[in-house]
Amino acid sequence: MVPGIMPLSCCRAGGAMPKTDEDAKKPASEAVPDRHWKLQVFYLCFYGFMTQIRPGESFITPYLLGPDKNFTQAEVTNVITPVLSYSYMAVLVPIFLLTDYLRYKPVLVLQSLSHISIWLLLVLGTSVLAMQLMEFFYGITMAARIAYSSYIFSLVAPSRYQRMASYSRSAVLLGVFTSSVLGQLCITLSDVSFLTLNYVSLGFVSFGLILTLFLKRPQRSLFFNRPDGAVDEAVPSEMDKMAEGDGGRGTKGWRDTALCRMLREVGALAKQPQLRLWSLWWVFNSAGYYLMLYYVQILWNEIYPSTDNRRVYNGGVDAASTLLGAVASFAAGYLKIRWTLWSELVIGMVTAFQAGLLLLMNTTSNIWLCYAAYVLFRGFYQFLVPIAIFQIATSLSKELCALIFGVNTFFATVLKTIITIIVADKRGLGLPVHHQFFVYFGYFTLLAVTYLLAAVGVGIRYSRHKQPGELALAKEPCQAPAELPPGQEQSLDAGAMRA
């Protein structure tokens, strides 16, 4: 999971979890969905898979540093790459709002056009300015990922949100894996040049634009396009409840008022310890994670500056990290512990391991050891992502869920941009890549120490205020009673979070 993809599948649909024993009482809008929705979901998943097929993406940095473009490492590190962080921060909020207001499809078209622009500039551009423009369009494509991840919720009934979201996410992961493997096979076995691989990527993203044009434009969206009579009275959404609270002052002014009240409610929710903790993890750790991701290919090129393209294994490493990330995310769903007690300790230990992996990546001269540390680093991050999603979103309506993840992603982007300006940009310190990774190691070490100290504080509070029997019980895995349906099982954990 990355910033920019809104994981709404764990949110309560309109403020209530669907229950299996109420299928006969489903409202009309859910009981009689669009009879073509299965075909639309299949097409959306196929679209998500195909738009990830960009076999040249894993080799952009060696392509820029190689004889095809011949940029210096300082230009790529301190002049070209920082533009990605600036672009992403500049367009994130506008695209978040436009995605909902324009009902998804226009933003998906913009994303496809931006992908085409990226590879046209990679193929035809020769100047630093052209590569900076390429990074600007790359920032647009990253921000526009929200359109794909939220599009699915306009096609299906709330009871199908979680399953359909897993389908669409799986299609994306499978596309990334296939793209990485395809790129590596082309480089290693067929001796395809980086330039040719970028032409192939240009062809795939052009085909992606054609697929985008055949997507159905939904008639409704989460905030700005809620047609009258389309909302079930039995399960009112957060927007509709707040609209009623405004005393029916008309449809023109209530949206702004409701959104402001939702933002105030987000601020009130920040007082919940578990939601606050995992939101802070989302902000601080994802900022460091993506900084590592942006600059790791430059580090690989410095550790192993191969002149033989066939000995560059970036695609294989990306494929392995994607596969491990998917397995780690799946395994996290089966981890049942008392998160109100152990969250800080788990986060602290994982962050400490990540700090150690960053140090290993930066100090080793063995490229394979660096590759392995990178794969493990991404796996640890992907392990915590679904846990964070559940801990943040399980007790929220999908409107509040979208706002909280949007706010978290925005703050993470701002932090990432500040660090980029200070550390990487030539107008700041302009550090070479090895020195940058020492900074990232120190950053994760500081985070790990903070989380572990917080874990010690939580342990001391529990030992002082809990009865011995309760403390022993808290150390056992938290299992829901077998007779409870899945929706109630999630409610138990949500209740613990509110305690």
Q: Tell me the number of helical segments per DSSP (H or I, 4 or more residues long).
A: 20
Straight-line N-to-C gap: 28 Å
Q: Assign a percent range to the helix content.
A: 55-70%
| Residues in β-strands, percent | under 5%
Could you name the key traits of this structure?
single chain; 499 residues; mainly alpha; 0% strand; globular; disordered N terminus; disordered C terminus
Can you walk me through this structure?
By secondary structure, the protein is mostly helical. Helix content is 70%, strand content 0%. The protein has 20 helices and no strands. Helix 2 runs parallel beside helix 9 (161-188), helix 5 (82-101) runs antiparallel to helix 17 and helix 13 packs across helix 17 (398-424). The longest helix is centred in the last third of the chain and has 33 residues, at 433-465. The two termini are 28 Å apart. Mean pLDDT is 80; it is low at 1-9, 13-33, 229-239, 246-252 and 469-499.
Per-chain topology:
Layout: H1 28-31, H2 37-50, H3 60-65, H4 73-80, H5 82-101, H6 105-124, H7 128-143, H8 145-151, H9 161-188, H10 194-213, H11 238-245, H12 254-269, H13 273-303, H14 314-332, H15 339-363, H16 367-393, H17 398-424, H18 433-465, H19 468-474, H20 486-498
Helix pairs in contact: 2-9, 5-7, 5-17, 6-7, 6-8, 6-10, 9-14, 11-12, 12-17, 13-15, 13-16, 13-17, 13-18, 14-16, 15-16, 15-18
